[in-house]
Amino acid sequence: MKFEKLNENKIRIVLNTQDLVDKNIDFNSFMSNSIETQGLFLDMLEEAEEKVGFITRDYKIKIEALAMDSGDFVIIVTRFNEEQKCPTARPRRVTAKRKSTMPSSDYLIYSFNSFDDVCNFSSYLADFDGCMSIAKSAILYDYNSKYYLSFSKINTEHPRIKNFYALVTEFGTYINNPDLFIHKLTERGKIVIKNNAIKTCATYFSK
Questions:
Q1: What percent of the chain has pLDDT over 90?
Q2: Phi, psi angle pair for 46, to nearest 5°
Q3: Dihedral sign, Cα of residue 161, residue 162, residue 167, residue 170
Q4: Which residues pair with 28 in a beta bridge?
Q5: How far does Cα 127 stand from its chain's mean position?
Q6: Rounded CA gap, 143 and 6, in Å?
C-alpha cells in the first residue's frame, strides 16, 4: 500500500491485488462496499495517520475509489471539518481488472433496493452492444422487500465485462456466497421474471 499526501485535506492511496489478498477481500466484495471493505478502509485511514500524518478523527470524509488498467486501485480520501460543506460523494465507478479477481462461482447475485433500480441498470446495460450476452441466464427474484438478480455462467472473457461490473455495482450490492444464497432465493423468494430478466426490464419497464 502506498500513501501520498496531495494537500492538507486530501491523500491518495494506491493498493494492488496482493493487498486485497492479504486482507482476504475479493474483487466483488471490494466493489460492493462490503463489511470487509469498510474494515479495509478503516485500516487504511489508521495507516495514513501513522505514515503521512493524515488525521481523520473528528472529520467528515469522502472516499472515492477507481480501478486502473494496471490492476491497481486508487483511493482518494478527502476530509472536511464542521465548517466545511462535504459534497455528496459521486458513486464509486470501479472497472473490472484481472481475471483472477473475477468470481469463480456458478452464480453471481446482486440485490437491488427497488424494481426501478433493476430497470435502470438493465436500461444502461442495454446501451452497451453485446452486454446482454454476458450471462447465459438472468432471473429476477423478490425476497424480503428487495429484488435480486441471479446471473449464471458469466462469460468473464466477454469484451464488455468491465462495463458490466462497473454498471451493476452502481445500482446493486454484491451478495457473498452466491452458491448458498441461490438456494434461499429458490426456496423462499418469489420469481418475478424467469427468463431474460435484463432484456425484459430494458424492453418493457425502462423509462
A1: 14
A2: -65, -40
A3: positive
A4: none
A5: 20
A6: 45
Tens-place pLDDT, residues 122-165: 888 887 766 777 887 899 999 999 999 999 878 777 777 777 87
3-state secondary structure the chain: CEEEEEECCEEEEEECHHHHHHCCCCHHHHHCCCHHHHHHHHHHHHHHHHHHCCCCCCCEEEEEEEECCCCCEEEEEEEECCCCCCCCCCCCCCCCCCHHHCCCCCEEEEEECCHHHHHHHHHHHHCCCCHHHCEEEEEEEEECCEEEEEEEEECCCCCCHHHHHHHHHHHCEECCCHHHHHHHHHHHCEEEECCCHHHHHHHHHCC
Neighbouring C-beta atoms of residue 157, cutoff 10 Å: 9
Q: Which residues pair with 142 in a beta bridge?
A: 147, 190
pLDDT at 90 over 60: no
What does the alpha-carbon distance between residue 83 and residue 188 come to, in Å, rounded to a whole number? 49
- Name the grid cell of 154: 458469466
CATH topology classification for 102-205: Alpha-Beta Plaits (3.30.70)
Place of cell 469484451: 159
Start and end residues for every CATH 3.30.70.1950 domain found in the chain = 102-205
